[in-house]
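Meet today's protein:

…
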Amino acid sequence: MEAQLPLNTEGKPIQCKAAVCRDSGEPLVIEDVVVAPPMSGEARIRIICTSLCHSDLTFWKAKGPRGLFPRILGHEAVGVVESVGEDVSEVKKGDMVIPVFMAECLECVDCKSKKSNLCSNVPFRMSGFMPRHESSRFTDLSGETIHHFLFVSSFSQYTVVDVVHLTKISDPSSLPPNRACLLSCGVSTGVGAAWKTAEVEAGSTVAIFGLGSIGLAVAEGARLCGAAKIIGVDLNPQKFEIGKKFGLTDFVNPGECGDKPVSQVIKEMTDGGADYCFECVGMASLVHEAYASCRKGWGKTIVVGVDQLGSNLTFSSGEVLTSGKCIMGSLFGGLKPKSHIPILLKRYIDKELQLDDFVTHEMELEDINRAFDLLQAGQCLRCVIWMDKKF
């Protein structure tokens, strides 16, 4: 990876290009923005490339409390540290880093525990500002504040990220940036959900509801864990051929099940229910179907998809009591970014973890709206956007 930086920018505002979302669902506008220097505990990052995640699409369309505009979206990326604020020793100028929406402070009870990846000092929340100072580092050329997104905002040539949200790449020369950026969110979330949250066992059975990038990453994680049967559930039959690359062994199309519910089909395929079921779409009805598809006694249902604000789940307390199943949430796949992303990076370098097949398109920043169109139409897995590269 290249690590060239402009000279004499430390401590000064930087003017650069960014894709700004001005209002809900409107095409992003490529415009000049001003990126302020980092404050205490922060670093300013030159983004090399970023990839488009479905969460960007969700919040691009957001209204109400989630709809903060103007905003710079983007949260899967890799970049190089341009400068750091006071009290930052973990990274320095020139370091390659992966920004992640999940924090790992390394100091709180949760970060020191193996049981949780939910940092207490910097808890996950939706905010348009920096986590430590509750202010923005972005303004447009007229001086208007531009909101941050998931503490990353990678659809900008430069961004400012708190150090608790940065994972340093120790050996950047061995890792292409258009693969490293995938571990910022989607692939890590899916692989981690199988590996860390569910703790999928060798020889077990897995059912995955929804075969977008996250669902396919769950399949990849289950494959790495040694699952014997990995069932994909999706309305698009083409997803089975794609999913085979990531370990899918079987496929269920809900539209072709006749009068049988999907849960009954899966129970018949697995002699009583899958050991692990993953909901990767973000629909309460699919969570219920995944729960029904789990084996009694030890089945685990893992919720990975992001549902609409206010969506609720309703389970019979009697069913929960007598079935012996459990349901779990999996934010960022249960991974601690600084602790676990380096393990995934090494597994990619060692040719164990597949990343290459997730990248279906690459383009420059000026074409970012085309990337949104492709994702909305279901025509891509991951589209990598290069900040300075021309195609």
